[in-house]
Specification:
alpha+beta, 4 helices, flat, single chain
Length: about 80
């Protein structure tokens, strides 16, 4: 039986979605969100010249989004 014939039945579709790398990525994402929302105090952050006061969770979330966009851009280019 060819590999193509195995996937045509539709039973392996859900199993193909949960690969070890995707599970690892989901676990890291959940841990990242827990870390972000556990740090809710106000902090002073210097952005080149101005200094702003904002919740730490917002700064962490912004950095996570920027990192995700950079990673997506780099992997898309390959």
């Amino acid at each position: 039986m060819s590999p193509k014939a195995k996937t045509e039945g539709g039973t392996g579709r859900g199993h193909d979605f949960l690969t070890p790398s995707r599970i690892t990525l989901m676990v890291l994402g959940v841990l990242g969100l827990i870390f972000i929302f556990e740090n809710t105090r106000q902090v002073k952050i210097r952005l080149l010249i101005p200094e702003v006061t904002m919740p730490l969770w917002l700064a962490l979330a912004a950095v996570a989004v920027i990192g995700g966009l950079c990673g997506a851009y780099l992997f898309r280019r390959r």
